[in-house]
Design a protein that fits this description.
Blueprint (H helix, E strand, L loop, with lengths): L13 H13 L3 H9 L3 H15 L3 H8 L2 H11 L2 H13 L6 H9 L3 H15 L3 H8 L2 H11 L11 H14 L8 H5 L7 H15 L3 H8 L2 H29 L6 H11 L4 H12 L3 H8 L2 H13 L4
Helix pairs in contact: 1-2, 1-3, 2-19, 4-5, 5-16, 6-7, 6-8, 7-15, 9-10, 10-15, 11-13, 13-15, 15-16, 15-17, 18-19
Length: 317
């Protein structure tokens, strides 16, 4: 199988790409469809949609949904979304219906930049006619909800500068919150991780460990609970090493009985053209095998081929 390169393709002809896609769709040529969609970047995929509709009077995404089903359909549809629209769809899926998928809310919101969160909020409102904050508020509760709302304000400090005076204060507040008599709420002490940059968060963690003589993660696991604890631990991990956090998320999607393919598709597609190369490296370090090997073990047929092409196509040219 030829390795597709997911970078801007020079001399790209979106009209010709639309024609080739229509022919491949008519003949159910799955590999041909993959080659067309995975050989160009997301911007160029969007460019195919208009000439396809103009020439054939049909929506490309709807035609793919009619032609295919299951994981292969989900993968192709994800490829056709802009990164923002994919996040919007996945966040809505996490809060709609019975129960909330807290894990997916945490994964998406802790790994996006302020700019990406703002774009997602705007698109969510335009798509569903209500704010993302309202949708998440209606489906979550307690300190978990309060911390998610802080993240949704998209005010995380992104400079990479750690203020040593504030580091001491934040560490002291966290340590005080472990004493019920201190009057310091755990939420108030730990909320810094939703707004601090990675360097500052790591300095706070180091200071807490220095003063307590204990591992920060073990302290957090002992003192916090539920979704709030999971959100804090995820904020800490992403501040330390976002690609490693996402590599571990991929592993968790394939652990146990059956593969959570929607999670696998979301992570690989949303991080392609972003940090998938780094995630692939971290996966190899953490689990001692290439990400492509995991895909081969867990997925089948053209769906497997598509994910493999996506991972290989993100290798730097």
């Amino acid at each position: 199988m030829a390795t597709a390169k997911i970078h801007f393709k020079p001399y790209f002809d979106e009209v010709m790409a639309a024609e080739h896609l229509e022919k491949a769709l008519r003949n159910k040529e799955k590999l041909k469809i993959l080659e067309i969609l995975v050989s160009v970047n997301n911007t160029q995929r969007q460019m195919i949609r208009t000439p396809y509709k103009t020439r054939y009077g049909k929506d490309l995404e709807e035609e793919i949904k009619k032609a295919f089903s299951g994981d292969f359909e989900d993968f192709l549809v994800a490829l056709l979304q802009t990164p923002t629209k994919l996040d919007v769809t996945e966040l809505n899926r996490a809060v709609k219906g019975l129960g909330t998928n807290e894990k997916n809310l945490i994964e998406i919101l802790t790994t996006r930049t302020n700019e990406e969160i703002e774009a997602t909020k705007n698109t969510y409102f335009m798509t569903y006619g209500k704010s993302l904050e309202d949708a998440i508020s209606a489906d979550t509760s307690g300190d978990f909800r309060r911390l998610l709302i802080i993240i949704l304000q998209a005010k995380r400090e992104e400079s990479g500068f750690a203020d040593s005076f504030k580091v001491g204060n934040h560490a002291a507040q966290i340590l005080k919150s472990f004493d019920k008599k201190s009057g310091v709420e755990k939420f108030e002490a730990f909320k810094i991780f939703a707004t601090a940059n990675g360097a500052h968060a790591q300095k706070v963690i180091e200071e807490v460990e220095r003063q307590s003589g204990k591992e920060f993660q073990k302290l957090a696991e002992k003192e916090l609970s539920g979704d709030f604890k999971n959100l804090i631990l995820s904020l800490i991990e992403t501040s330390r090493n976002k690609p490693r956090f996402l590599a571990n998320s991929i592993h968790l999607a394939t652990k146990g009985m059956g593969t959570r393919d929607k999670d696998l598709i979301r992570i690989l597609v949303s991080r392609s053209e972003n940090d998938l190369v780094l995630i692939e490296h971290e996966f190899q370090v953490l689990f001692g095998k290439p990400l492509t090997q995991l895909i081969k073990e867990e997925c089948k047929a053209e769906y497997r081929d598509g994910l493999t092409m996506l991972v290989k196509g993100n290798t730097r040219p």
